[in-house]
Amino acid sequence: MRIGFFDGVREIGGNKILIEQNGKGILLDFGKRFAVNNTYFNDYLSGREWNGPNDYILTGELPPFKNFYRGEVSPNSVNELDVEIKGVFFSHAHLDHIGLIDFIGDNIPKYMSGYSEKVVEFFNEKGTIKPVKNVKVFDSPLEVAGFTVRPIPTDHDIPGSFATEIETEKGSIFYTGDIFFHGRFSEKSKAFVEYAKEKKPYILITEGTRFGWGFVSSPTEGELKAQIVSVLDQCGGILFGNPYEPHISRMFTFFEIAKEKERDFVVTLPYAFVIKKYSEIGDALADEILHSDKFFVYKPKRALKDWENEFEDRFMDSDTVMKNQKNIVMLLDFKSTPELIDIKPEKGAIYVHSGGEPLAGLDNENMKILSNWLNLFNIPYFRIHSPGHAPQQTLLWMAREISPQILLPIHTQIPERFEIVSDNVKILERGVMYEF
Ligand SMILES: [Zn+2]
Ligand SMILES: [Zn+2]
Hints:
- 28% of the residues lie in helices and 22% in strands.
- By secondary structure, it is an alpha/beta fold.
- The model has no long low-confidence stretch (mean pLDDT 96).
- It binds zinc ion (2 copies).
């Protein structure tokens, strides 16, 4: 059996993990690297459309997988890896794990949770990801490429994340995906650690995102709520929140604040899209928001699409928001920031950036633009957020509990940190297949 990491090596995000035996393989995640790691392409410069994946493969930005991509791989242009990939398992729907899904050929099955499927629809709508075929909801063990692959639900700052177990002749391989233990559903992550520990695994592939971060605290949703309320109580105007759109747990925290303060809860259309999609698959938080009589959808003045008009009976226009602003908690995604022109925020308004775009620390240009907008309206900016990853001490605890024979760090800038808890940490080089 061989394992290779094609990104996520000494970097956070971009995970692409290939596990192969007898010439057949499965991939765990196929993510886009964060913009800070861009080398040859960015938002302005893409590979030439007519050349399919080849510009990316030739520059080393996509792995040289055979019969895998949409569009032909140019013969003789690259040394293709001789592995037949039978399926890709997406641990969750953050772009650094799923963002390159639209490069994958229609013939390759794409396994993911029901939630992730909805998030892919959200990214289609937004134009971030092109529509894809052969998506399969993955919620029970499957036999693929001679491996038994099993999803084990975990908690992360997007719903529907799972750790993956791959049963092999040498024992189980576990891949944590991205994981934390301070969210609303932390018991899932704890149950995963218990389960993995019992299996006495052969290999643990684990994230180590927060190694090297200078802080160890991890506020819970309840603690974040208290922080936001403490600011709101002193300012008293409209509360603008900016959580990441698919992060329903955080959205719900703002909803709870609205309820507690007897304010209306108004969201822009991207949030409404996610709430509706999650509600369709029975998400309790989304359901509660959707059925609350305090829930409204902000109506922009532009022409609306069909799906947007479905919220007609919940629409609130800018004039109404403007007149009642002291009684409103409003989720305002970054792209909707110019709506401030119509809302005309009054004294006491506050803006709480809580994980939504632009990603602080990863997107300085847009952070500057956001800050300029808020200054234009004299709205104070507060970053009240909690990372979606376990802090360093919890990562070490998790690795110690699971105690695998071999530990492979990924999605971390400092893989060596796991050497504190294991004598058998192997640090893989990007793009190299290793025998295990
Ligand atoms: Zn990630
Ligand atoms: Zn993630």
